[in-house]
Amino acid sequence: MDGQPGHIDQIKQINAGAVYRLIDQCGPISRIELSKRAQLAPASITKIVRELLEAHLVQETEYQEVGSRGRPAVGLILDTAAWHFLCARIGRGSITLTLRDLSTNVVAEDTVDLPAQSELPFLQRVIYEIDQFFNRHQQKLERLTAIAITMPGIIHSSSGVVHRMPFYADVRDVPLGPALSEHTGLPVFLQHDVCAWTMAESLFGASKDSQNVIQIVIDHNVGAGVITDGHLLNTRRHSVVEIGHTQVDPYGKLCYCGNHGCLETVAGLDNILTLAQQRLPLSPQSLLHHQPLTVENLCAAANMGDRLARDIINGVGYNVGRIVAIMVNLFNPDKILIGSPLNQSCDILHPTIQTCIQQQSLHDYSKDLVVESTHFHNHGTMPAAALVKDALYNGALLVQLLQG
Ligand SMILES: [Zn+2]
């Protein structure tokens, strides 16, 4: 009977995760209601709930059921304060560390420098900063469940290896996940920041009620995350959809990936600021003269009707829109989310993208499609928090906590 115990463990894990998720999302909820919604026998619910109670992952509470005037019922809610987890985001030159409880509330947060150049290797520096964070906040620490880290780059999330990162040129196949796990004794979750952000929007943000979502990130890098049937699309090793390296101009600039005229070379923030700089002498009336050329100033000028600034943002919209229109035909989503500092000019950017989609993809797929801004921004650690939530909901982390 090869493999059978594994199979049973897997069912146990999935059921425990599903029950935990229902308590989190619908609590206070009675055992009877849990049994109905999870489609599990009352005896199974009793057993799973008992284990969750013993591990202090859920607690009982009295509540008045809707429409009932009788005695209060006993329902279950999460017990979140007794458990903490660490979230981290590595950006360009800094690392943000956030200690959260299981409700994702912030207990402590610091952002510290993590320069591109250093005498110490990247791995050692990250571990050092995490140790320092724990030392600084020792007084507030409860039982730790996990560490989750998000970052840009080429990341193999299941093995925890960071192959390459933009900005940190010395990063080459760094085993960050396994090394950190060995150092702390905790499970470590690693994910590309676009994917984790897509999960965060789906769990707590703008795509909470959608099962099929395309999330486009336009920042220094350009990428996408796709949710199909409620799950993050995973292709072999990677789940980030590399739209940034789709060719939009065969005669365009050389991209760091080795190809020419990638979407990122025309829509990435650094590149649009360079383009604005080049076109500025041809627009003597532009509001962009005599002020630092930043994304904030570009958007502010566009919102005030500045022609050059509007042109630049519309250009991003057309180029991104063309690729999104192809993705709409492939995935037939309910919603397109745009995560970008350019959302400061969303009244210009979003309609341009929407028009491209309507003109360039199937009418049936695009007619009810909405384009909107993400709820979170490309900083902060809610994406990392989403990795931990996801691992609790699918049962993988939950079972580890139940086993102590
Ligand atoms: Zn490229």
TrEMBL record:
InterPro entries: ATPase_NBD, ROK, WH-like_DNA-bd_sf, WH_DNA-bd_sf. It comes from the Bacteria. One of its GO terms (molecular function) is DNA binding. Keywords: Carbohydrate metabolism, DNA-binding, Transcription, Transcription regulation. GO terms for biological process: DNA-templated transcription; regulation of DNA-templated transcription. It holds the Pfam family ROK. Belongs to the ROK (NagC/XylR) family. PANTHER family: BIFUNCTIONAL UDP-N-ACETYLGLUCOSAMINE 2-EPIMERASE_N-ACETYLMANNOSAMINE KINASE, ROK (REPRESSOR, ORF, KINASE) FAMILY. This is Transcriptional regulator of PTS protein. It comes from Enterobacillus tribolii.
